Amino acid sequence: MSEVAVGTGPDTAVDFDGFVAARGAALWRTAWLLTGDRHRAEDLVQTALGKAWPHWDRVSRSGSFEAYVRKTMFTTYVAWYRRRWNGEVSTEHLPEQPGGDAADRIAFQRDVAGALARLPRGQRAVVVLRYFEDLTEAQTAEVLGCSVGTVKSQTSRALAALRSSPALARPDKDQR
Amino acid sequence: MNDDFEDSLRDSLHRAVPPPPPEASRSEGARAYAARARRRRTGVLAAGAVAVVVAAIAVVPSLVSDGRVTDGQRGNDPVAAPTQTQQSQRPGELLDEPFECPTGAGPAGPIGTSPEGTIPSGAVLARVCAVQQDGVDWVPPPDALTMDVDSVIKTLNELPVAEDRMGCDEDLGPAYVMVFQYPDGHMVQVRGDLYGCKLVSFGALERLGAADALHAYFDALADQRRHARPASAIPTPRCPVLGRSVGESLIPHDLSHFVVAKAIVCAYADYSATALDWAALSQDEVAELTADLQANSGERLAEDRPADPSNGSPWS
User: Fold this and answer.
1) Where are the domains of chain B?
2) How far is residue B175's CA from residue A88's CA, in Å, rounded to a whole number?
3) What are the sequence ranges of the domains in chain A?
4) pLDDT at A6
5) Is B18's CB within 8 Å of A120's CB?
6) How far is Cα A48 from Cα B33, in angstroms, rounded to an integer?
7) pLDDT digits over B275-303, tens only?
8) Domain formed by A94-176, architecture
9) pLDDT band for position A94 (cuts 50, 70, 90)
């Protein structure tokens, strides 16, 4: 299945199942960065898709269904996170504990997820949108429904916090 | 700004994400989610075990004398009120193309900003347009301000410049764009965020006091409506998303100028931040709600209260 273009034409080349098959993994990756947990990431993706699915016919005609789902996912994350998952203790107990490179990789995942988890969820959302999704400040503001000024200020705060994170400040690139 | 750390962060994020699980019937799950939502809606409403929230549109009555509303604005038939084109001529109507708030994503087109943070005086029309955001929705007054627009501009220009927002709670919430139109047709806009620091963005410069600016607009509009008839089309409000402080910032300082034109009651279940269903209030219920709002608002609501720490801002 080819990738579905985002906002560049009708999504009618694929049906909903095709869209999910093509873009579900990408959505999950973003959700993982937001939640720091595989199962919660899946929950978030499922919820966003479930909320967006009734609007497939209308939104997909404009070719913006993925953008719609992503926006739904971020607003769901920001709005619901404290209600549903406020007992989260992020990434402290990963079930897998393999050795060698896999252990290093998982440790790196845990460190990055932990650094993100220490950010307020709004700042985390901004970081994911700006540095994982590579959205502009204006696009990030549009997704989150806030001003560009808020995006700028929150990005600045988030970066200041992340700079002090040993996980992100460490010089080694052993995970490359 | 794009320094080495940002590049490193971008790289780290991409490297850190674990491989996604195999496609897990997400499309089926999405349909199941939607079906469950429909069933929950039906069941919860039948049981009546729902939380309810009243969403209302407060509008300025067209003519207020002795504290009573004297035209057709009260009740459920605002369409009966005269249309804006029937009103007495006001400065804004001299414009060839008076600005109207667009539907959809928000104002677009050749609308300038004021990066230096000062709106020029002399505007002949001002409008407040809601910034449409997913789940955060509100309806601004439908009619334009065409009298004493400069009073609003003066309020905006005197707002303190935002310098250090480190102490602010910046939850997401409703926002507006205020557009000023001048005799030659050109326009200048500012954006106000009715949440967090309540920033007014002039462009590069930001000021504090978006709610104050909106209230100044409301006050000027109330004064205008004492001298003219209001716009006719009062849309039905929509249910807010729970957890977002939609209503608080939008209630005018002094409700003695206002009546509730339309109100709906929204039903929610615990699992969802969005409303399951809604129903319009009757004319009598709207009148009762108006009385209740007027009896329980005023200075308490006018305070620009600090954020409730228990509110769980996403930014702090």
Assistant:
1) 51-304
2) 30
3) 1-88, 94-176
4) 38
5) no
6) 10
7) 778 888 887 887 777 677 666 654 443 33
8) Orthogonal Bundle (1.10)
9) very low
